[in-house]
Amino acid sequence: MGEWRFDSPVRPARPLWDAVLVERLVGGGAVVVIRAHHAIADGVRAIQMMATLLDLEPSPPSPPPRPDVNDAPTVLSPDIAQVLRAAGRAWVTNPLQMGALASSVFGASLHPMRAVADTTSYVRSALRTVDRAHAEPSKLLSGRSSSRRFMTLEVSLDAMKATAKANAVTVNDVYLTGLLGGMRRYHEAFDLEAADVALALPINIGGTNQHEAGNHISAAIIPGPASIADPAERLRTVHELVTARRAEPGLRALDRLAPTLRQVPARVAIAVMGAHARRVDLQASNLVGPPCPVYLAGEKVERMYGFGPLPGIPAMAVLVSYGGVCTIGLTLDPAAVTDTVLFARCVADAFDELLDDAVNIPTGDAKTVAQASENSELRDADQ
Q: Which of 97, 104, 208, 291 is the least buried, fewest Cβ under 10 Å from its Cβ?
């Protein structure tokens, strides 16, 4: 095959995903690199789509043959068909939202003043979900480029769960707190005072009624408390901030505006993404992998790593939990994060500090992570 690059554009005439098999690795084994356009799947849906590729046993039975299904010819002219597709797209892709919209319009016609008050309250809630408060962009991370550096870190899932349980928070709260601790340590390594970080996080709003393909996430921003030195206090603050964002009624605003936003010209969309990138220094996703061992072509999958996109921000982190291990993939812009090895080491040390802080756990109930310099696996690779 010819040269393949992560940053090569996906061809519109081809499927919006591709895969590359890398064999003959040092120590044996192989790596399958799967790239999917964000238009067909967010992180949660990507994990679901993996179920069609992976097996639950080394030698599964052959699937039944697929029936031949021919596309039924249409008698409509191309122009009429295009109009009908455009008019019905929203109903086909999200009938529940369109039904709610119709109900809202009818209710507003009966109670206009109440509708204005409700709309104002909803808009304010939507704005709060992306409020970074006092967290200003870091001058240390101000550089931008088209280069990427990908690094991975592994953390014990048992240790993450134990720390979450001991502090009455979620594993995601522990994850975000560790990342913020890494940002704090990275700034201190340059003799800079640690400040709060504008942290963007996707929140799954798909539920069980959404089809699997596509994006069903909303974006939220919190002023990540990297300025707090004590990891336990930082963890509690993160929990409070994330809980408040999840409870906002306006959290679904972006999803409800999606049919309209799809019609926005590309240059406007690029400008909006640029504005978002200037407001955020760190973005983090948390994906729950398969709860049991899975296989590909008869071989057990040992690890899953998330290689997140970098939409003009300094750092993107993706956690994937599978097989008792949380892998954390760090996609970094080397123009912003000038010492990527140091950054990853700071994140690893922050997790060690945070997980060792779970002092209320009885001996034997959890296994904390050893020092990153000794046992934590840290990998570095150019994109």
A: 208
Alpha carbon dihedral 371, 374, 375, 376, in 10-degree steps, equals 60
Amino acid at 29: G
- Residue 287's DSSP bridge partners are 320
Task: Determine the topology of domain 132-382 in CATH.
Answer: Chloramphenicol Acetyltransferase (3.30.559)
**Closest Cα to residue 350, out of 136, 150, 153, 134?**
153
The percentage of residues in the chain with a pLDDT greater than 90, rounded to a whole number, is 34
CA dist., res. 83 & res. 182, Å (int) = 51
Q: What is the DSSP letter of 179?
A: H
DSSP character at residue 174: H
Q: Residue 16: in which H helix or E strand, if any?
A: none
Residue 54: predicted pLDDT:
75
pLDDT tens digits for 313-331?
999 999 999 999 999 999 9
Residues 6 or more apart whose CB falls under 8 angstroms from that of 325 comprise: 154, 155, 156, 157, 303
**Averaging pLDDT over each range in 266-270, 308-312, 338-342, which range is the top one?**
338-342
- The 8-class DSSP code of residue 214 comes to B
Phi, psi angles (nearest 5°) of residue 223: -80, 90
At 368 the three-state DSSP class reads coil
Catalytic residue among 37, 38, 211, 239: 38
Residue boundaries of the structural domains of the chain: 132-382
CB contact burial 239-275 (16+ within 10 A = b; e otherwise) = bebbeebeebebbbbbbbebbeeeeeeeeeeeeeeee
pLDDT digits (tens, 9 = 90+) for 53-91: 777 778 777 766 766 545 555 544 554 554 444 444 444
